[in-house]
Amino acid sequence: MHVSVIISTLYKRPEEFKECLESIIEQTVRPTEVIIINGSFDGSWEAVNKEFKNIFKKMRDAGIAVKHIPLPGASLPHARNTGAKLGKGDILLFLDDDVVLERDYIKNLIKVYEEYPNAMGVQGFITNRINPNNPLIRFSFLKFLWWLLQRGYYEVNVHRQLPSLSEIIPYRVTRVITRESLSGTNMSYLSGVFKDLKFDERLKRYAIGEDKDFSYRVYKLFPASLYQTPHARLVHREAPTGRLSSKQFETMKQVYHLYLFYKLFDQNTKNKVIYILGRMGDLLLHSILLVTSGFKKERAIKVIYMIEAMWLALSNRNRIKKGEINFWWDEVS
């Protein structure tokens, strides 16, 4: 099976991106092509293009075709859809520009498609995402509280997508497991999936939740077809540059999550209660962090932003339900 790798970047974290591309070159099974969607619009690409052109040559010398597509200001969903249209592989692998793949990542990803004929999507395992000493793993009371507030919690070999838009996340994966949604950090799909579905381009800019939205729709259309393998391993550097401000992030999160709740889940009483509990859980978590931090200013501001964003989403719920979801940018820009 041939693999097309698709990466959307703003070139705002060039060191991490170079490390990502080097890890692709070092794969034991290399992709047929790497499609880079260049969304930069502020000179970021021009500042680094010489060194990246050298890496592109190295990739071509290794037998990997490189397509570099300028798409200034493109949202993440628009960039992913563009890459999917251009991809010629049987498998389309979407990566963040700050991940580093272990050498057998692609080999072990392909293996899942070969061993599970019903697979429509597969992701690997991020080795540095969850600290095993996390209190939600160590203390049963906290796990129960997070379950009660539908904030999501950690399990072994179990994944669930909750109507609150949180997830039950497998902090340890010992075998290939099924999932209900995939992480945009590293997610792959059979190219045929894109005959039926596209990423939602109503979600703009960083587009919080676009990965959950697309993958959960795949899950509903093709039940039990999404997988995660512990053998395709990677590190997510989570570089801080190129991300939204705290207020922008929180406002986008609350508006887009409400939109996705209306879009993806049945509007019955149970799901509505779960969604409300999830928002209460968010607020409780950050209120606890505020108190335990000694009322640090940045924690207080975070809680204020969250309350403002929740109110903005709630007071515009009818617009959001209709898909009018980008009014929020005027509120925070």
Automatic annotation (TrEMBL):
Keywords: Transferase. It holds the Pfam family Glycos_transf_2. The keyword Transferase applies. InterPro entries: Glyco_trans_2-like, Glycosyltransf_2, Nucleotide-diphossugar_trans. Coiled coil: none annotated. The keyword Transferase applies. Residues 5-146 form the Glycosyltransferase 2-like domain. It comes from the Archaea. GO terms for molecular function: transferase activity. This is Glycosyltransferase family 2 protein. It comes from Thermococcus indicus.
